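Thread title: Can someone regenerate the structure for this chain?

I was given the following input by a collaborator and told the matching structure tokens would be attached. They weren't. Posting the sequence so someone can regenerate them.
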Amino acid sequence: MTTPVVDIAACTLCMGCVEVCPEVFRLNDDLGLIEVMDLEAYPEVLVNEAIKYCPVDAIEWSAD
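Best answer:
Regenerated them for you:
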């Protein structure tokens, strides 16, 4: 299974991924970073939209 991964060092917290794909991405207020929810399967079309609109290319697919 492939999983979306957020490069926390590159992420600018623009929240675009959360807006496009709230089923997968969320802001962790306590840590101040975007995190990927633990799901059995990820909606490929929505995650690809989040990847496309990330202004700093901080999201990618990673094989587990």
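The chain has a mean pLDDT of 96.
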